[in-house]
């Protein structure tokens, strides 16, 4: 039986992506070769890379606006240091919004390159909300934020107006909701949530912000080198890029980000309504900052955990235990998770109520 997969990432992808990926592992484009054994320089794979990069810009509404989409290695965690390496001037400084573990990791890496200013933090409240009133130093080389905090279940609903370059880690909510993406100068995301399997990292960079730091940048960390090489500076993650292309094609065929956003809103409304209604549960994030991707919640009485755990496992649900820093449960409702799976979880929460 196929599970209702609530994993926080790597996570559920569309069934058709699994099927097409499996077929390409056996015979890619009727070439008699597996996608796993072809050269990244082959005509067929160059076409995959080109289409994937173009589709990213198309779906984000950034075509012809001076952006480049790159597929790289190293995960979002390598972007934590590529960002300051490419954008922080020698003796410069950068401002960060500290909204969770990943934001904090980004700050730690930036400190290797220069001064970091934490514009605001919700650490004292175990990152249960998104700070709203803060100022960004006008002389910062950039401002960095995390649009969705995967562990703590919070999501930025608006982004600051600022004159400094805006950088965003969108690892766990990219392609899930309509935003004016042209507000951002650099967006990055590990592929393994809404885009594809683990192993590729997406960076969408406005070219005009690059080349201004005055520092020497090692080649593999240099966005300009990756742009010049059309995302083939070294051997790319061929299979993750291919599976990402399939997911992007699936999203386009559904009607793009605005279409999936409506479904994501329905899924989140269904689950949060039950969390708020059911006296056995409580949410952990401030209501106005709740994430539509990762819903974090607790049982009011831990004694009910064994029965709840038994019920959701029996219903074929997988991947909802919360991260150790929040505890309880985390239901990750990425793009490919169907509304029906959320209904199954809600039914189990109701069933628990009848059994207590
Ligand atoms: N940022 C966010 C918001 C994340 O959720 C994660 C991983 N879950 C990361 C960064 C780190 O990503 P990676 O494992 O690709 O380095």
Automatic annotation (TrEMBL):
Principal cellular location given in the protein's record: cytoplasm
A GO term from the CC aspect: cytoplasm
Record note on cofactor: Binds 1 pyridoxal phosphate per subunit.
Gene3D superfamilies registered for this protein in UniProt: Aspartate Aminotransferase, domain 1 (3.90.1150.10), Type I PLP-dependent aspartate aminotransferase-like (Major domain) (3.40.640.10)
The EC number(s) this enzyme carries: 2.6.1.52
Cofactor(s) recorded in Swiss-Prot or TrEMBL: pyridoxal 5'-phosphate
Residues spanning the membrane: none
GO biological process, one term: L-serine biosynthetic process
Compartments (UniProt record): Cytoplasm
Function recorded in the entry: Catalyzes the reversible conversion of 3-phosphohydroxypyruvate to phosphoserine and of 3-hydroxy-2-oxo-4-phosphonooxybutanoate to phosphohydroxythreonine.
Chain's gene name: serC
Keywords: Amino-acid biosynthesis, Aminotransferase, Cytoplasm, Pyridoxal phosphate, Pyridoxine biosynthesis, Serine biosynthesis, Transferase
Protein name: Phosphoserine aminotransferase
Sample GO molecular function, one term: O-phospho-L-serine:2-oxoglutarate aminotransferase activity
Quaternary structure annotation from Swiss-Prot or TrEMBL: Homodimer.
List of residues that carry N6-(pyridoxal phosphate)lysine: 193
Aminotransferase class V domain location: 5-345
Amino acids binding pyridoxal 5'-phosphate: 76-77, 102, 150, 169, 192, 234-235
PROSITE patterns per the UniProt record, alphabetical: AA_TRANSFER_CLASS_5
Known catalytic reactions: O-phospho-L-serine + 2-oxoglutarate = 3-phosphooxypyruvate + L-glutamate; 4-(phosphooxy)-L-threonine + 2-oxoglutarate = (R)-3-hydroxy-2-oxo-4-phosphooxybutanoate + L-glutamate
Binding site for L-glutamate: 41
